[in-house]
Amino acid sequence: MYSLDEILTPAERDSVLATLLALSASFGAATTSWGEGNPILTMLTTDAQKSADLTKVAVEIAKGGFGELLPSDAWADLWAQSRFNVVRVPATPAAGYVNLTNTEPTDYGPLQPGELIIAHTVTGKTYRNQGVITILANVGLAGVLVAADEPGIVGNAAPGSITTVVSSLIGVGVTNPLSFVGTDKETTLALVNRARTKLGSFSPNGPKDAYDYVAKTPFLPDGTALSNTSTPITRTRTVLNIANGNLTTYLATAAGPPTGPDVAIVQNAFDQHVEPWGVTSLAAAAAPVVVPIAYQAWVQGSQLTSAQIATLIEAALVAWFASLDIGGYVIPPDTGAIYPDVLEQVIGQAMPGILRVSVTIPAVTVVMVELQVAQLGAISSTITRLV
């Protein structure tokens, strides 16, 4: 009986050649006298290389049957669609709301979608308005929806970091009160896990996996909309109310709570594809818990400026908050929490050269409950450079 490791280890040319030479010697061939350029040795070496190449292909085919061992994104896509009829979720741009000020006695607008261009002050990544807007004279405009020009996490921004107006709008200023968080295309690990949760949707008993799968899947492979929300749902938590038997699935995007219309889309998907008879299952937006952060980091040996270091740390914090489960870290019997020492670890691992980190806000553990999702608030950074 071969082990899985043995089956999934490709042969190397030299080991195949050694086997061929040993077989030749067993038939009386004077293999030790075959020097470089010998036609028989050349032929056997070529055969050994071809055999080794074939075993590499065979190993990839074998790995293709195991989700956690898939050798490439292409194999993962084939595996997920052929076995579960699940396709990878594409990248989405970072988006959010900005507040505009206007110190000039002139209205700007109406500006059509895309005519307002703003940028991250450090990274230079640009964002554009998604709807028609008018920036009022001496007032401005609050709550303007904008989205990054590039999809993925490259457009992520911490609160207060989008402060540059690129468009020619004299007197107009901008800031973002909350994080902007985009998503890269679904990772192979996430695709494999989501594909397997689809099995839960086949059960009439409404297992948790069914709600997770339906909420996180925008489209079926045939193009039928499932939970085609404006921003992908990336986190769920299903809770049973033992008093009345109702199920509530709390939803969150990478940036935080989804919009009301997006919750309604998921609720409709639950009603059609998940909810068993005799059970009430509800979709609900997780409640936001905004967590401002103040920290000091001591850095040694880096050629980056303090602003660049702070931007890398902000990016690490944005990514960490985007992946944090609804309810935070749950260490029983606590309901859930965010711990300052964990934040110090996240900051300390943001880049090489950070020797020490001290988080002063939050000063104590942030207690959370199962229906809450953490959102990154304003960041106050102090970078201390050591010689």
Structural features:
387 residues, GMP Synthetase, Chain A, domain 3, six-stranded antiparallel sheet, alpha+beta, three-stranded mixed sheet, globular
Helix-strand layout with pairing:
Layout: H1 4-7, H2 13-26, H3 39-63, H4 73-84, E1 93-102, E2 108-111, E3 117-120, E4 126-129, E5 133-135, E6 141-151, E7 162-165, E8 172-175, H5 188-197, H6 208-216, E9 233-240, E10 247-253, H7 260-273, E11 281-285, E12 287-300, H8 306-323, E13 337-338, H9 340-348, E14 354-361, E15 366-367, E16 372-386
Parallel strand pairs: 10-11, 12-16
Antiparallel strand pairs: 1-6, 1-8, 2-5, 3-4, 3-7, 4-6, 9-10, 12-14, 13-15
Helix pairs in contact: 2-3, 4-5, 8-9
Summed up, what is this model?
This protein is an alpha+beta fold and 387 residues long. The protein has 9 helices and 16 strands. 30% of the residues lie in helices and 27% in strands.
Could you explain how this protein is built, in words?
- The chain is an alpha+beta fold and 387 residues long.
- It folds into four domains: 4-63, no CATH class; 93-175; 205-285, GMP Synthetase, Chain A, domain 3 (2-Layer Sandwich), CATH 3.30.300; 288-386, no CATH class.
- 30% of the residues lie in helices and 27% in strands.
- It contains nine helices and 16 strands.
- It has helices at residues 4-7, 13-26, 39-63, 73-84, 188-197, 208-216, 260-273, 306-323, 340-348; strands at 93-102, 108-111, 117-120, 126-129, 133-135, 141-151, 162-165, 172-175, 233-240, 247-253, 281-285, 287-300, 337-338, 354-361, 366-367, 372-386.
- Strands 7-3-4-6-1-8 form a six-stranded antiparallel sheet, with no helix packed on it. The protein has a three-stranded mixed sheet with strand order 9-10-11.
- A hairpin with a 6-residue loop joins strand 9 (233-240) and strand 10 (247-253).
- Helix 4 (73-84) packs parallel to helix 5 and helix 8 (306-323) packs across helix 9.
